Amino acid sequence: MSSLIVFWVPALIRMVIVLIGAIVVGYLWGSFWFATTICVGLIILIGLQLHYLYRLSLWLDKPESCKLPDGWGAWTEIFSRLYRMRREDEKNQLELSEWLTRFRQAMTLLPDGVVIMDDVLFLEWCNPVAEQHLGLDMTRDKGMRVTNLVRSPEFMDYIILGRFEQPLVISHRNRKLIAHIIQFENRRQILVTHDITESERIDMMRRDFIANASHELRTPLTVINGFLEISSMQPDLDVKTRTAHLKLMTEQGHRMQSLVDDMLTLTRLESVDFPVRPEHINMTALMEQLVADMNGLSMGKHPLTFINEGPDLMGSMDELRSAFSNLVSNAVRYTPAGGNITISWTNTEAGPKFMVKDSGIGIGSEHLFRLTERFYRVDKSRSRETQGTGLGLAIVKHVALRHKAQLTIDSTPDVGSTFALQFPIEAAIL
């Protein structure tokens, strides 16, 4: 009813006005002018409609560049409604653009890769993580088929077979990924990739740790069990043999105890439930204790150079003593008799620095980056002779991390090794 009033009533009023005007003209000047007035009036009315229709067509072609006229009569309401619709549409587009921007920002911050494809697998959009995972480039690869960009036989089979109920595990670009395709709308698909490289590495480290720990414990247990069986089967062993057996069993028991202690220490160092409790460490007393321990291990076989010029330190006494002792004991174990060992505690521009330098057997450069791994051994036979647990440098690394120190290793085969812990300036007590 409102549309009828808005559009038809003004048109009828204009036609009535034209008719009344024509009647007046015909009354005054005759029927010819009556007909002429009606024709002219209708032509004007039709011309106005055609004019506004033309202006409307121009606006419809380029609504962003053309302005709607004010209009006359019913056209005023038409143009007003179109203008309101246009403003509402612009508002909706702005909101949609903002939501799209937020969506893309959220997708960009996701730890997983997200790739949006059409129904024939052409790339429409992907986030930066997907670019890293799959080697895509949004500016270069948009509009290209994803199966032509990700060259993986497993991925191709997964796409072709279309069995998307289960995710796919693939190795691509030195990464291990879980890929999953999700149907989205009728003509869209989403490919989600999750990088499990680090979790797989950690899981492998866990398995290796269990295997290595079991292997390290099996050897002393085998020795102890073997001697116990001999003792039970031959109770009349002579005192010399029995004493030798007991000595070996005691050594192997101490070895197992050291291994268990080191594993417990590592577990504590890695646990977030055991934060560092800083205390004032008297470094002079600690260094003197290290020298005494070194002399006890060396038994006078290695000339020692001792430098103590550094300040006291804020940190965990037990942890730092364990780390320093491991470095000193390694220097003694892997330096032949007569080789020089230097223990120094100095204050540098970068902060306090603890260093152990030896002229021992040295380590090849290919081994340096793995030295702090649990149970990693450069020479297994040599490590057996020195009775190491294989966990000392792993402990040193974690103590350094907990004290914000940097562990550096410099070594040359048959020349010697230098292990240094560089502490931050704020750790020093001056």
From TrEMBL:
<dbReference type="InterPro" id="IPR003594">
    <property type="entry name" value="HATPase_dom"/>
</dbReference>
<keyword id="KW-0592">Phosphate transport</keyword>
<keyword id="KW-0472">Membrane</keyword>
<dbReference type="GO" id="GO:0004721">
    <property type="term" value="F:phosphoprotein phosphatase activity"/>
</dbReference>
<keyword id="KW-0902">Two-component regulatory system</keyword>
<keyword id="KW-0808">Transferase</keyword>
<keyword id="KW-0067">ATP-binding</keyword>
<dbReference type="InterPro" id="IPR003661">
    <property type="entry name" value="HisK_dim/P_dom"/>
</dbReference>
<keyword id="KW-0597">Phosphoprotein</keyword>
<keyword id="KW-0813">Transport</keyword>
<dbReference type="InterPro" id="IPR036097">
    <property type="entry name" value="HisK_dim/P_sf"/>
</dbReference>
<feature type="domain" description="Histidine kinase">
    <location>
        <begin position="212"/>
        <end position="427"/>
    </location>
</feature>
<dbReference type="GO" id="GO:0005886">
    <property type="term" value="C:plasma membrane"/>
</dbReference>
<comment type="function">
    <text>Member of the two-component regulatory system PhoR/PhoB involved in the phosphate regulon genes expression. PhoR may function as a membrane-associated protein kinase that phosphorylates PhoB in response to environmental signals.</text>
</comment>
<dbReference type="GO" id="GO:0005524">
    <property type="term" value="F:ATP binding"/>
</dbReference>
<dbReference type="InterPro" id="IPR050351">
    <property type="entry name" value="BphY/WalK/GraS-like"/>
</dbReference>
<keyword id="KW-0812">Transmembrane</keyword>
<keyword id="KW-0418">Kinase</keyword>
<protein>
    <recommendedName>
        <fullName>Phosphate regulon sensor protein PhoR</fullName>
        <ecNumber>2.7.13.3</ecNumber>
    </recommendedName>
</protein>
<dbReference type="Pfam" id="PF00512">
    <property type="entry name" value="HisKA"/>
</dbReference>
<dbReference type="Pfam" id="PF11808">
    <property type="entry name" value="PhoR"/>
</dbReference>
<feature type="transmembrane region" description="Helical">
    <location>
        <begin position="7"/>
        <end position="27"/>
    </location>
</feature>
<dbReference type="InterPro" id="IPR036890">
    <property type="entry name" value="HATPase_C_sf"/>
</dbReference>
<keyword id="KW-1003">Cell membrane</keyword>
<dbReference type="GO" id="GO:0006817">
    <property type="term" value="P:phosphate ion transport"/>
</dbReference>
<keyword id="KW-0547">Nucleotide-binding</keyword>
<dbReference type="GO" id="GO:0016036">
    <property type="term" value="P:cellular response to phosphate starvation"/>
</dbReference>
<dbReference type="InterPro" id="IPR014310">
    <property type="entry name" value="Sig_transdc_His_kinase_PhoR"/>
</dbReference>
<dbReference type="InterPro" id="IPR005467">
    <property type="entry name" value="His_kinase_dom"/>
</dbReference>
<dbReference type="Pfam" id="PF13188">
    <property type="entry name" value="PAS_8"/>
</dbReference>
<dbReference type="InterPro" id="IPR035965">
    <property type="entry name" value="PAS-like_dom_sf"/>
</dbReference>
<dbReference type="InterPro" id="IPR004358">
    <property type="entry name" value="Sig_transdc_His_kin-like_C"/>
</dbReference>
<dbReference type="InterPro" id="IPR021766">
    <property type="entry name" value="PhoR_N"/>
</dbReference>
<keyword id="KW-1133">Transmembrane helix</keyword>
<dbReference type="InterPro" id="IPR000014">
    <property type="entry name" value="PAS"/>
</dbReference>
<dbReference type="GO" id="GO:0000155">
    <property type="term" value="F:phosphorelay sensor kinase activity"/>
</dbReference>
<feature type="transmembrane region" description="Helical">
    <location>
        <begin position="33"/>
        <end position="54"/>
    </location>
</feature>
<dbReference type="Pfam" id="PF02518">
    <property type="entry name" value="HATPase_c"/>
</dbReference>
